[in-house]
């Protein structure tokens, strides 16, 4: 099937869901309500960014776990992980500490059929040079160079400029071979999502069909995860090669799904704006012209939420960018693009790629367009490339792949499983009436969602005009929150009286996590044409004295099991657009890199970097090399006498002192979706 033929099919949708219609003729994806249905909504935990062996990059790094494995892992089962021994036995196993409630698997749409073509002797592209190199790279004794060559000559096409984006020659004219194979794989993806969805009254597990659209011109990340509401989906998983511009992807999804009157609904989730080198939020369309109102409305409809945090770092804000917010430094990786991340080449990130900056730009655009295209709710995810949704434990980090350490060549388990700058990933939480597709998907639509850096901190936020100061003590806080205002993700209702808005935020500690230290409310507004930010500490105590012993990773000091506050904006101006979101901060804990070094009982006093690197291949123990590398933040004394004024002319060992160090401890956190205020008129 050619791309031209595919275009002819674009008006058709296929449904593999056992869905039906109710008496009113409306699409129904499950037979009835869940047993624990609650109209005041409950919190459910999930991951919407997951790769399996179907993703070409994951496959090249040795991932052999399937979508079925990913679903099993999310439900709490143990699965094997690469690297594998020659007999096919995995050397590692992984298991989540608590099952998830929902997942969306998001294998890359690009090259979705390539693996099939290259492994099928009957396929037309089987004898292509790319396929032959791919099969060589799959051999057990393949060298890193052979794997790298195959990865670049195929996956590198996603970094071509949009006007040059094409399927490589292995896919035939117009990509016909790979499109055909990819459609078959897409049908299997949807079928597996349908089979894994729990439609019983217990509603223990919810799945959404999906994929990742992976545009990366010049390796500047513009990726989106596409998430369908149910088993009624588009005929193709549209890739960068099919629709090289995001606005064309949105238009295609809207026309062929949302507007098709078949019970189909879909949204796209942007992620890793921190690796876009500042282009993710450029205020121009594909044709170079400024945003139109129609463009802004389409973007707002198709992209209601954004992935703020994941394996490749946080995209909230940069230090020094936002009125001396010292917590902006959390898990900011020192790379500007996907390529520099993969190569571990330090390149300072661009502030235009961070969400808080764009929240301000969105307020400005609303003044001119009447629509805010950057009115995003906040989510988080893992971006795992080893089929492990929700695997976020810092004390059992096994890497996620996809950037950094190629997992098929991992060192023994006592060495770092990933680049030290990369993170453990996060989770998305939604407030929904039940753990069912309609309820969860609508929570994404209305942005009543929040993201965490891994812990299951439960956060609720409401905004209104007349909440009582005693609301935190009320047993019916949620009922009063909804009755008197809007939840996270909403727009403040028409102002009543002459007062300022009030916000109630409550947070509960993850019972398996650290105590809570504080709640902050971050306000942003436009004053004199400039974006302003104010951070309010509203509950808890930032000076509670809590810390963590870096040698043992044992916590020290006390914190709170729960926090709640009601804040009235002390600097409210009814004429200024504004947004408000909450950030909940845990006490300090060991970062994953410190956990591993603590377990290795590292001692860097007698360490010599160059000698360690030279010896690591023969000893097989890379733990001390990893732990004592100055960039890992643990060997501070090594760098005391190093002059970093001219790092390019330093010996290799000393030069490592001149790159950013990772934090030895972290303060895990949660971010709520904002509540927006718009002046009347």
Helical residues, percent? 10-25%
Strand content: 15-25%
Instruction: Please provide the count of β strands.
Output: 30
Q: Report the span from N to C terminus.
A: 53 Å
Q: Number of helical runs? A: 17
Secondary structure class reads alpha+beta
Average residue pLDDT = 90
Main sheet specs: 10 strands, mixed
Unreliable residue runs: 1-17, 21-25
The assigned CATH architecture of the largest domain is Alpha-Beta Barrel
Q: Please, what is the CATH homologous superfamily of the largest domain? A: Metal-dependent hydrolases
Compute the gyration radius: what is it? 25 Å
Number of domains: 2
Q: What best-fitting shape do the alpha-carbon axes yield?
A: globular
Q: What would the CATH topology of the largest domain be? A: TIM Barrel
What is the CATH class name of the largest domain?
A: Alpha Beta
Assembly level: single chain
Keywords:
Immunoglobulin-like; 681 residues; ten-stranded mixed sheet; TIM Barrel; 2 domains; alpha+beta; four-stranded antiparallel sheet
Describe this structure in words.
By secondary structure, the protein is an alpha+beta fold. The chain folds into 2 domains: 410 residues, TIM Barrel (Alpha-Beta Barrel); 149 residues, Immunoglobulin-like, CATH 2.60.40. The chain contains 17 helices and 30 strands. The strands form 9 sheets. Strands 4, 7, 8, 16, 17, 21, 22, 26, 29 and 30 form a 10-stranded mixed β-sheet that branches. A hairpin with a 2-residue loop joins strand 13 and strand 14. The longest helix is centred in the N-terminal third of the chain and has 21 residues. It starts with a helix and ends with a strand.
């Amino acid at each position: 099937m050619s791309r031209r033929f595919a275009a002819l099919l674009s008006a058709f949708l296929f449904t593999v869901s056992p869905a039906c219609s109710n008496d009113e003729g409306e699409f129904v994806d499950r037979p009835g309500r869940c047993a624990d249905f609650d109209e005041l909504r409950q919190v459910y935990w999930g991951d919407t960014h997951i790769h399996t062996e179907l993703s070409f990059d994951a496959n090249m790094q040795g991932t052999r776990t399937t979508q079925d494995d990913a679903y099993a892992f999310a439900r709490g089962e143990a699965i094997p992980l690469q690297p594998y021994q020659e007999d096919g036995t995995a050397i590692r196993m992984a298991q989540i500490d608590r099952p998830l409630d929902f997942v969306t698997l998001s294998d890359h749409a690009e090259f979705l059929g390539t693996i099939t073509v290259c492994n099928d002797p009957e396929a037309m592209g089987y004898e292509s040079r790319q396929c032959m190199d791919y099969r060589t790279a799959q051999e057990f004794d393949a060298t890193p160079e052979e794997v790298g060559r195959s990865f670049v000559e195929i996956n590198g096409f996603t970094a071509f400029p949009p006007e040059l984006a094409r399927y490589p020659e292995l896919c035939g004219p117009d990509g016909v071979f790979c499109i055909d194979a990819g459609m078959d794989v897409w049908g299997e993806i949807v079928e597996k999502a349908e089979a894994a969805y729990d439609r019983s009254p217990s509603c223990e597990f919810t799945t959404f069909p999906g994929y990742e659209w992976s545009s990366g011109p010049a390796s500047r990340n513009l990726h989106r995860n596409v998430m369908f509401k149910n088993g009624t989906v588009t005929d193709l998983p549209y890739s960068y090669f099919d629709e090289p511009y995001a606005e064309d992807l949105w238009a295609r999804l809207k026309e062929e799904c949302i507007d098709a009157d078949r019970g189909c609904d879909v949204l796209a989730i942007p992620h890793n704006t921190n690796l876009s080198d500042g282009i993710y939020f450029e205020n121009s369309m594909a044709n170079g012209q400024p945003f139109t109102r129609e463009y802004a409305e389409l973007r707002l409809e198709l992209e209601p939420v954004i992935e703020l945090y994941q394996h490749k770092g946080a995209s909230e804000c940069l230090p020094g960018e936002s009125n001396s917010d010292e917590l902006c430094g959390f898990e900011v990786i020192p790379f500007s693009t996907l390529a520099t991340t993969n190569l571990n080449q330090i390149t300072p990130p661009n502030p235009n790629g961070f969400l808080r900056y764009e929240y301000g730009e969105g307020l400005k655009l609303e003044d001119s367009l009447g629509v805010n295209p950057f009115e995003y709710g906040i989510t988080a995810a893992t971006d795992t490339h080893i089929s492990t949704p929700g695997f976020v434990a810092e004390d059992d980090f096994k890497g996620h792949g996809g950037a950094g350490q190629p997992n098929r060549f991992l060192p023994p388990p006592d060495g770092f499983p990933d680049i030290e700058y990369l993170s453990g990933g996060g989770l998305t939480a939604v407030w929904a009436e039940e753990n069912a597709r309609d309820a969860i998907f609508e929570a994404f639509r209305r942005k009543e969602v929040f993201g965490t850096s891994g812990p299951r901190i439960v956060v609720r936020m409401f905004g209104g005009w007349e909440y009582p100061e005693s609301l935190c003590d009320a047993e019916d806080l949620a009922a009063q929150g909804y009755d008197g205002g809007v939840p996270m993700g909403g727009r403040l209702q028409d102002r009543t009286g002459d007062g300022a808005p009030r916000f109630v935020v409550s947070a509960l500690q993850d019972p398996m996590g650290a105590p809570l230290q504080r709640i902050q409310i971050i306000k942003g507004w436009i004053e004199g044409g400039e974006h302003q930010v104010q951070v309010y500490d509203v509950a808890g105590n930032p000076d509670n004295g809590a810390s963590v012993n870096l040698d043992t990773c044992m916590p020290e000091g006390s914190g709170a099991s729960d926090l709640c506050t009601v804040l009235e904006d002390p600097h409210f101006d009814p004429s200024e657009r504004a947004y408000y979101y909450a950030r909940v901060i845990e006490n300090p804990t060991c970062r994953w890199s410190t956990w591993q070094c603590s377990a290795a009982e590292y001692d860097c006093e007698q360490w010599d970097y160059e000698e360690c690197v030279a010896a690591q291949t023969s000893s097989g123990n890379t733990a001390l090399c990893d732990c004592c590398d100055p960039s890992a933040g643990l060997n501070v004394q090594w760098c005391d006498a190093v002059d970093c004024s001219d790092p390019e002319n330093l010996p290799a060992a000393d030069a490592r002192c001149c790159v950013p160090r990772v934090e030895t401890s972290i303060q895990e956190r949660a971010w709520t979706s904002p509540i927006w205020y718009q002046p009347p008129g």
